[in-house]
């Protein structure tokens, strides 16, 4: 009973940490110091469950790149000055998915969530 | 003089790191971004170990390393440290916490015979791992309790930590006090941790300095019962500063699997080094393995 509960909890946590959407966009947050107004980031985009032909990735009404049938992943370089939404459109312009890239200041959310080094039990 | 040189080297390393840290931080929401809350669970399996500075002490094997952390808005649990944290400003944070003191770990992989063997002859030999309850062995014609030498207890510390966060780096300054009434002392640490990201690699470097009080050093590394056998055989541990370095590297294979490499080195302070229980001045630790994060 206890084992089943632990397995169920781990399974739930594992599912919760994965992206159920049709694409994965990582990283999706760019943090800069207070004095900076632009943030450069290299975004890795992976299609998870899409069986259509050519799709394009669009931001601020500009096509950043397109992916062709069979292509599973692509890398996009982008410079943010504010929150920016990436759209995944098919060739007919139909929106298939979207994901917001967050631009933030380090002052609001500085490095290191954890108070200790990870993997430091021993 | 040596301590001065060590401090200068540490400061040099700190400033060298400050000057070259990256200004930008990129991360993934609900995964590794600052400010995320929730569980972080992982387990690493591999090969590694930690040297044991005690005379004849067994090295401590590292085969499985769990990583268990929960962060709420204020309460947190991070690998056996349970605490409460609050931000003073955007860059300054205070933690209040309780955590086990790890000094006992060396004594769990050490056998009293290793230190007493060369000095005394025991009438009734004891087996490895029995150091906790040896009783009153006969040494020559005298009955001597060696409990004080053989059994060091686990202790629990309460502490307060000040954190100064700056770009990709954090300065941690912590003070700990024994709340379990075991060693009845204090200790403190200062560390400068930086996080570096290169492609699929994330590397943490953490030079640190740690101060141990008289009471802590003496409880774990002093010898109080041996004076029964004559003057000069006891040892009283004194306070001291010790320097260390920790490096942790994670290479991401996919969202869950990582290669984990960990290494650390600590130079024991003179209060520990001079103890008859200790025959090595450094503690080295290393681990290489595969880590899975749920």
UniProtKB/TrEMBL annotation, chain A:
Superkingdom field: Bacteria
Pfam families the UniProt entry points to: DUF3019
InterPro entries attached to this UniProt entry: DUF3019
Protein name: DUF3019 domain-containing protein
Organism from which the protein derives: Alteromonas sediminis
Lineage: Bacteria, Pseudomonadati, Pseudomonadota, Gammaproteobacteria, Alteromonadales
From TrEMBL, chain B:
Subcellular location per the Swiss-Prot or TrEMBL entry: Cell outer membrane
Signal peptide start-end: 1-23
One Pfam family recorded for the sequence: MipA
A cellular component term, taken from the record's GO annotations: cell outer membrane
Record-linked InterPro entries: MipA
Keywords in alphabetical order: Cell outer membrane, Membrane, Signal
PANTHER family recorded: MLTA-INTERACTING PROTEIN-RELATED
Membership in a protein family: Belongs to the MipA/OmpV family.
Name of the protein this chain belongs to: MipA/OmpV family protein
